[in-house]
TrEMBL record:
The chain crosses the membrane at residues 32-55. It comes from Acetivibrio clariflavus (strain DSM 19732 / NBRC 101661 / EBR45). This is Uncharacterized protein. Keywords: Membrane, Transmembrane, Transmembrane helix.
Length: 405
């Protein structure tokens, strides 16, 4: 930018000089210099427009559906099929500073295409965050050889990738954050409903006799054991704050990834313990899914990978979802941070929602947590002062940690 400004100042000085020269000393050379100064920007703009209209761009990725942490190969080809030299071009990639940090895609490419030249670049891209987003060239800046003008070309159709969240194990930090403590139990391991079972398996030494499915065992000629679901009263409802976040696109993707991975780990834990689990999520409108067995984890995983964060009425949706709270022993709300509206709603309805747990991002552990530290902390303080259980999410290696706020 400074170089462009410097060259424009030099050009204006040159133009003023040629005008003054033509006034005070009219002649052939002064006339040539004057018309050269006048035609210079016209020629520069013409070359830029010619380059913009003539170059050809092709982008491709070797995989469009991947899991977080996978490395994909991104390729682009830009060509000059004319007999003229193109203006200098600079390629800027999509949201490269955050989403593709520490990868080669984050670097800008600058080059000049000679007649009949094709430039091909192959880049390895580390898919670091869950979500569905475009990857590739965001814009191509074309400038003239005299550095007087620059025009950005943005009408580029990029390939879109879908990155599935990483599956982590849920762990406790201390007894107060354990999901299986008796006082905060979401999973009932001791009180099984014998009338509800999700699967049968071969008898193993140590299995209680009351768990044997006698009727089916007689038919099969071998002992079969019922795998009971959790207590019918331990059913859990998970609600995700799907409202659009007020930050930049790439920061939103990082925070959404943070929330979704914790939801995935939590649902995996619940289903492994045969706990009836209900999920409310947003995809164009409100959708619902439920299961009580780990065999159904895949459908939750697919839903969470494709979930959209584009709503604007979470509080009204929350009011509707919590209207049937009596059916559930536990309500779990996942949100990036506590808003004033959310805090006021929960405190106002606390009497009729006795067991509610809220999960938020630990800003000290999140890659973009610095922007969360600027958010108003009073809504969180209000919840904690009224003994509402709030947990902070953080990650360590392949583990998801929940810490008391």
């Amino acid at each position: 930018m400074f170089k462009l400004l410097k060259n424009k100042i030099i050009y204006l000085c040159f133009l003023i000089f040629t005008i003054a020269l033509g006034i005070y000393k009219d002649g052939y050379i002064s006339t040539i210099l004057f018309y050269t100064a006048l035609l210079l920007p016209v020629v520069s703009l013409s070359l830029i427009l010619f380059t913009m209209a003539s170059f050809r761009l092709l982008e491709n990725v070797d995989q469009r559906i991947v899991v977080k942490g996978d490395v994909i190969t991104y390729t682009y080809e830009i060509s000059n099929h004319t007999k003229l030299l193109f203006c200098p071009m600079t390629i800027e990639f999509t949201d490269s500073k955050v989403l593709f940090k520490d990868t080669i895609l984050g670097e800008e490419d600058e080059f000049i295409l000679y007649p009949d030249e094709v430039k091909k670049a192959v880049k390895k891209v580390d898919c670091r965050y869950r979500g569905s987003y475009y990857i590739g060239i965001q814009s191509i800046s074309i400038r003239d050889f005299f550095n007087l003008f620059t025009i950005k070309f943005k009408s580029i159709e990029n390939p879109k990738i879908l990155v599935y969240p990483k599956i982590r194990e849920l762990i406790q930090v201390n007894k107060y954050t354990s999901l299986i403590e008796s006082n905060e139990s979401i999973v009932s391991k001791t009180n099984k409903d014998p009338s509800i079972f999700s699967n049968v398996r071969d008898y193993q030494s140590g299995d209680p006799l009351k768990a044997i499915h006698w009727k089916l065992s007689a038919k099969q000629g071998k002992l079969l054991v019922k795998e009971n679901e959790g207590n019918i009263n331990s059913r859990t409802k998970i609600i995700i704050n799907y409202d659009s976040l007020p930050f930049s696109f790439e920061y939103n993707v990082v925070m959404q990834d943070y929330i979704i991975e914790c939801v995935v780990a939590t649902i995996k834990y619940l289903l492994e313990n045969n706990t009836p689990t209900y999920l409310s999520y947003y995809k164009f409108d409100m959708q619902y899914i439920s299961a009580s067995n780990i065999n159904d984890f895949g459908q939750f995983y697919n839903v969470l990978a494709n979930m959209m964060f584009s709503g604007r009425e979470f509080i009204s949706i929350l009011e509707k979802e919590l209207g049937s709270f009596a059916q559930y022993a536990n309500i779990m709300i996942f949100t990036p941070y506590i808003t004033k509206e959310l805090s006021e709603y929960i405190l106002l309805n606390r009497a009729r929602i006795p067991d509610i747990n809220i999960y938020i991002i630990n800003e000290n552990k999140c890659e973009v947590g610095s922007i969360l530290t600027d958010q108003d902390k009073q809504p969180l303080v209000d919840l904690l002062s009224n003994n509402i259980k709030v947990y902070k999410i953080s990650y360590e290696n392949e583990l998801c940690r929940l810490e008391v706020a």
